[in-house]
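Q: I'm building a small set of examples for a reading group on sequence design. Run inverse folding on the following structure and report the sequence directly after it, with nothing in between.
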C-alpha cells in the first residue's frame, strides 16, 4: 500500500489508513472470534461487511 499522505495537514487520513490496515490484520488473525475488536467499537458495523469489502480494499492498495 502506498502512503501518499506525508503532510501533517493530512495526518488524519494517514491514521484512517493505518486503522483500516490494522482492522484487516486483526480480521485475518481472528476470523472466527470477535476478540480484539473492543479496541474499535465505532467500527463494528464495518467489521460485519469486512469479509465482503476486504477484496476491494486489497485491490485499491495495489
Amino acid at each position: 500500500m502506498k502512503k501518499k499522505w506525508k503532510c501533517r495537514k493530512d495526518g488524519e487520513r494517514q491514521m484512517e489508513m493505518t486503522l483500516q490496515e490494522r482492522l484487516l490484520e486483526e480480521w485475518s488473525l481472528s476470523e472466527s472470534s470477535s476478540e480484539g475488536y473492543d479496541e474499535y467499537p465505532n467500527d463494528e458495523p464495518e467489521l460485519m461487511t469486512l469479509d465482503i469489502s476486504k477484496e476491494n480494499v486489497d485491490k485499491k492498495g495495489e
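The two ends are 6 Å apart (CA to CA).
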